[in-house]
Amino acid sequence: MLKTASPDEIVELVLCANIIPPERKKFLEAVGIECKELGLNFINRLAEKYNYDLRDSSKKEKLDIKSIIPSSDNIWIFQANPTRYDILNALADDKICSEIHWLVNQHKKDILKGHIGIIWLSGRESGIYAVTEIMTDPQIMAEPESEKKYWTDPSDKADDKLRVKMRIVRNLIGNPIIKESIRHTNGLGNLSILRCSQGTNFSVTQDEWNVIKTMIKDGG
Questions:
Q1: Count of CB atoms within 10 A of residue 132's CB?
Q2: Are strands 34-37 and 14-17 parallel, antiparallel or unpaired?
Q3: What is the pTM of this model?
Q4: What distance in Å separates the CA atoms of residue 168 and residue 117, rounded to the nearest whole number?
Q5: Greater model confidence, 96 or 171
Q6: How far apart are the first and last CA of the chain?
Q7: Do 32 and 26 form a contact (C-beta atoms < 8 A)?
Q8: pLDDT digits over 88-121, tens only?
């Protein structure tokens, strides 16, 4: 459209996003589209500056956490590595925004139906991006095609593996609880994933969960 309106003008195409999967970046740059990754914190600051509301974000809104998140004494972190799985686009996908499947590589006998799951993004924008209710006990299952497409390595898409199905009860992609904020919050300094981030599944104590719930309610 731009070239039609101004055929003699040079048009540069730049894709800006918080995370651009390597396979997409390679394709886009091959066809002449420059790719720039912008941190989610930077995007949130821009949104605030220009009074633009990101979907599912509202720092001013005070939430009744009890009405949104079911009660459980067992809370688990499920970590996503953005270099392997594009979790942010998955959480923004209307086709899978309410339910998602996740690998269980640790605590295989402890994670059970009815427990609470916290989706944690690793990397530069580390932190909590969603809260879920675990809907099944761990079992060997495949992912739906709508979720498989977000794996960046084709080899990760193939196998039936030990997973749980989770219902997303609070999507925080527009206003995540960032790692640095968590690290400096009283009561969370000893959070298991902060002490050792290697792995997929991490336990959370009830006291830590109570602090995290308050942070979610207060908007981080």
A1: 26
A2: parallel
A3: 0.73
A4: 9
A5: 171
A6: 41
A7: no
A8: 889 988 877 689 999 999 999 999 999 999 999 9
pLDDT digits (tens, 9 = 90+) for 193-216: 999 999 999 999 999 999 999 999
Contact indicator for 37, 89 with CB cutoff of 8 Å: no
Q: Strand pairing partners for 132?
A: 117, 168
Distance CA 17, CA 36 (A): 7
CB 20 within 8 A of CB 13: no
Residues forming beta bridges with residue 204, ordered by sequence position = 75
Give the HSE-up count for residue 4: Cα atoms under 13 Å, Cβ half-sphere. 1
- Distance, in Å, from the CA atom of 186 to the CA atom of 172, rounded to the nearest integer, reads 21
Compute the C-alpha angle 136/140/142, nearest 5°: 95
User: In this structure, which topology does domain 65-217 adopt according to CATH?
Assistant: ph1033 like fold (3.10.590)
